[in-house]
Each structure stands twice: as C-alpha cells, then as structure tokens.
C-alpha cells in the first residue's frame, strides 16, 4: 500500500490487518499510529524513485513470498497558479502521483502474472474531470491515472489480474486539510458533496481487493460523503 502512513491508506492497512491479512505500507514518513500492529509493516519508500520501489518490493517478496494486491494511494497536492508554478512542483507531482503508480505496478506485476491472480487499485479524483484552480498538476496526474489504469487492465486481463480505479470523494485527510484550509473552500465541500472520513472508503477498497470484485478496468465512484454512523 503506497502512501499508507496516513488517511485512507492507514485506515485500510488497519482494516486489512484486522481481517487477517498482512498490510505492507510504503511511505516517505513513518506512522507511529501503525506501530504495534503485528500484521502491519512499514517501509520508508519514495515511490517516485523506481529503484527504491523495486528494492522495497524485493524485500517484501523475500520476507513473505508473494504480494497479492497493490493499493496505489501515494499522492501530493500542491496549490499554485499555473503561471507561477515552477518546473520542480510540476514534475514532482507527476513523479509521485503518476510515475509512482507505474513503478509500483511494474514491481508487483511479474509475481501476479505468474500466479494468474492479483488486484491493483488506483486512486483518481473528481478533479480529473472537473479541474480546479491552483490544482492543475494534481488534476492532470489523476486524469492520466484513469487512462493508465484502463490500459493496464486490458494488458493483464488474460492473466486474471484485476486493475480498478476508485474515486474516493472528498475525504478529511491530512492532505485534504493542507490543500483546503478552513474557510470558503472547505465550507463549500461540506455544504455540497459532504466531507467523509478515511474509514468511509475502507469498505469499498476491501471489496475491490477481494475475490468478490470480479471485474477489471472499472471505476468505483463515491461522489458524495455518506458517513458510516448515518447508515
């Protein structure tokens, strides 16, 4: 699970481990909140670095023998105008949000193809369709991921490896709070789509990772928040 130290990734790692799976978290930071879970392992990995990703995946394979699923959730969301955006910001956003998914998929796919089984879940965003001022790099990366996931799904379908995309909706994560400080925009999301919690997305992800999700090249979209406690 890339980008698993916080937010949706951390919530999913906990849920996966609680159900008897072993959750492997790749992130550039260490999450103390995940310490103490016997079935959660953390590895410091910058997913924009292809060799680091390959080395980390090799380490996991040596320890556990196989990787059954990949949740590609690592992302950054800088806020800046297009006119003033420096080349580093643009390239780094694509390197993490887009390249990181490609490198991670490349690293885990050989084993999945050999076993003729596996599930890859890619995160997109409503901004891929709608766009947003000061979020051009993020929106562009998510739009590209949608097409990439469908193309990859077509490539590996004959090997029974599934590749699906989730649009989690507006979720109250550290990244969201950093990109949407208190004020007008946060109030806008709360009054329109609603703001969900990371735990609200876990059920969707566990479904896509399970054998019950007998589809590939598909998109699961949560357009509006629907908190669990309201069910």
Automatic annotation (TrEMBL):
Example of a GO MF term: quinone binding
Transmembrane parts of this sequence: none
Keyword field contains Repressor: no
Keywords per UniProt: Oxidoreductase
GO-annotated biological processes: fatty acid biosynthetic process
PROSITE patterns: ADH_SHORT
Protein family per UniProt: Belongs to the short-chain dehydrogenases/reductases (SDR) family.
Protein name: 3-oxoacyl-[acyl-carrier protein] reductase
């Amino acid at each position: 699970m890339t980008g698993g130290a916080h937010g949706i990734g951390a919530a999913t790692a906990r849920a996966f481990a609680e159900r008897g799976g072993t959750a492997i978290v790749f992130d550039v930071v260490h999450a103390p909140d995940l310490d103490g879970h016997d079935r959660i392992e953390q590895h410091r990995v910058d997913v924009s670095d292809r060799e680091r990703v390959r080395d980390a995946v090799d380490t996991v394979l040596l320890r556990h023998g196989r990787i059954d699923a990949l949740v590609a959730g690592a992302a950054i969301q800088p806020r800046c105008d297009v006119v003033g955006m420096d080349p580093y910001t643009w390239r780094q956003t694509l390197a993490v949000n887009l390249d990181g998914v490609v490198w991670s998929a490349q690293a885990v796919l050989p084993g999945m193809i050999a076993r003729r089984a596996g599930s890859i879940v890619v995160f997109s965003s409503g901004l891929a369709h709608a766009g947003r001022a000061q979020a051009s790099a993020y929106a562009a990366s998510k739009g590209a991921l949608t097409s990439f996931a469908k193309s990859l799904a077509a490539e590996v379908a004959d090997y029974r490896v599934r590749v699906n995309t989730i649009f989690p909706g507006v979720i109250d994560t550290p990244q969201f709070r950093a990109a949407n400080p208190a004020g007008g925009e946060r109030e806008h999301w709360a009054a329109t789509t609603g703001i969900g919690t990371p735990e609200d997305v876990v059920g969707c992800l566990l479904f896509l990772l399970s054998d019950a999700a007998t589809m590939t090249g598909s998109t699961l979209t949560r357009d509006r928040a629907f908190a669990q406690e309201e069910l």
